[in-house]
Amino acid sequence: MPHILVTGASGFLGQAVITALQTAHPTWPLTNLDLRPPPISQPNVTYIQADITRASEVDSAIPEANPDAIINVAGWVPNGSLRYSNSPALRAKVFATNHLGTLNVLGSAQKTTCKAFVHTSSCTVLSDDLDHDFPNMTEDMPIGRATLAYGASKAPAELAVLAANNASASFKTCALRPATIIGPGDTYGVIATMHACIANGETPWIIGSGDNMYDFVFVSNVADAHVLALENLLSATPVPGDAAGQAIFVSNQQPIYFRDFMLAVWKQFDHVPPFQLRIPTSLAWFAGLMAEVNAWVMGGRESALSRGSVRDAVGTRYASNEKARRILGYYPRVDFVDAVRLACEDYRRILNDKEKGKKS
């Protein structure tokens, strides 16, 4: 039975990948390589502490574990307004983790008997180019034009992983590109950001036409896709297709108008906008610029409203999942309606726990 090492298995997606692996293959030995131990105990999983940005630590940890395959989930996602920041310090941190960290893990894996390498890339390798819309993205579209730090850091990491694919040398690689992930345990702040609009009185405003479409994916569905990709790379006769050397988009396969997504989230918290008013994109963009200027004047603080957040909010960004179905046989088990409900129920629990903490 193969020994699987998962980097970043203490995080939001990494924990879900561990659970999916244990469900599909309960006897397989698993190792969690992460900078921090898991917040919740992971029975029958060996934990190794290592910082993937430090090559010396990775070169020590991976040979010690000696895995047959690696799922490289570890990464850093800038949350909230930081997503749109172009500060040198933030970009340096993002690239150190997502690009250099991946190169360190990949390089160390190639020095061992590791046979398969599944890399968690991101849909943002394309969609973080805010100058363009991306309806029905496909894997043959060129990457490397992302303007935001996260997508810009993920693109060269993905290219390096796919370039390392060498089936003749028994080292197969592939990269999965998840859509924006939602679900219990979310540390990306998707539901939290949408919920904050209620208290801020922002729910009535519709920026632009309101007809731009996005796609999302439930965390356990992404984890399932990782297991399918791993099984595919480890198989001598992969079915239904061969994932080696491939980049593959993964979503809930249910694109939705972004405005409808927000309305669905707010409904879970018993909120309906009292009215709706469209704001021209140009006016919202100018407001974002003024908010950035004000934040800079006030000492360089990050602004929740920015030109980047406006451009992101009016963009069309969803992917075709034809390749995921054809090569991995991937179909989401958790429907998007249930995905939103479960994600919101978890965030409601967090809010209730905070409220109880204030009263105690």
From TrEMBL:
It comes from the Eukaryota. GO terms for molecular function: oxidoreductase activity, acting on the CH-OH group of donors, NAD or NADP as acceptor. InterPro entries: 3Beta_OHSteriod_DH/Estase (IPR002225), Lipid_A_modif_metabolic_enz (IPR050177), NAD(P)-bd_dom_sf (IPR036291). The keyword Methyltransferase does not apply. GO terms for biological process: steroid biosynthetic process. The keyword Oxidoreductase applies. Keywords: Oxidoreductase. Residues 5-274 form the 3-beta hydroxysteroid dehydrogenase/isomerase domain. PANTHER family: BIFUNCTIONAL POLYMYXIN RESISTANCE PROTEIN ARNA, SHORT CHAIN DEHYDROGENASE_REDUCTASE FAMILY 42E, MEMBER 2. Belongs to the 3-beta-HSD family. This is NAD(P)-binding protein.
